[in-house]
Design brief:
- The chain has one domain.
- The protein is built from three helices and eight strands, in the order E-E-H-H-E-E-E-E-E-E-H.
- The strands form two sheets. The protein has a five-stranded mixed β-sheet with strand order 1-5-4-3-2, sandwiched between helices.
- The longest helix has 27 residues.
Length: 156
């Protein structure tokens, strides 16, 4: 079982001039994660919403950790072509969308959607979703990373 799933979709990029290789946009902890952490600290022990906030916080923190692991790959690996890496890109086309990581070269771009899941998981097509099965048998569905990448690719 993979600790995290990384899927990509290649989209063409037109670029006339290219100078150097670097990570153009770094990743930082999201404001939602900071807000959840602040809310958890402010609530008294035993508050009815505390377990819900802690679960959401743990899930988002794990996702951020998976994205950081991928970022280290880009930082530590030397690629033979000129490239740029953009982390956590939020754009708007017909609707707003977010890209976890985009690896851009003069001839193509790769959109990467990261999922940091340490338990059994599978991707299903109908409806498109990622299914997580915990050790206690609890099943939860998430947005399909394949659909997320396809939608981001179409919007680009």
């Amino acid at each position: 079982m993979y600790k995290y799933v990384t899927l990509s979709w290649i989209v063409p990029v037109l670029r006339k001039r290219w100078i150097g290789n670097f990570i153009s946009k770094s990743r930082k902890e999201s404001l939602k994660l900071e807000g959840l952490n602040a809310a958890i600290k402010r609530l008294p022990l035993g508050h009815e919403t505390l377990p819900i906030l802690e679960t959401v916080f743990a899930s988002r923190k794990a996702g951020f950790g998976g994205e950081q692991q991928l970022g280290k790959v880009f930082e530590n690996y030397s690629y033979p072509m000129k490239y740029r890496v953009l982390h956590d890109v939020s754009l708007t086309s017909s609707t707003p969308f977010q890209i976890d990581t985009q690896f851009i070269t003069p001839t193509y771009a790769v959109i990467v959607e990261v999922k940091n899941i340490s338990v059994e998981h599978k991707i299903v097509n109908n409806p498109p979703q990622l299914i997580r099965v915990l050790n206690n048998g609890e099943v939860k569905g998430f947005n399909s990373p394949i659909t997320q990448v396809e939608n981001a690719s179409d919007a680009c």
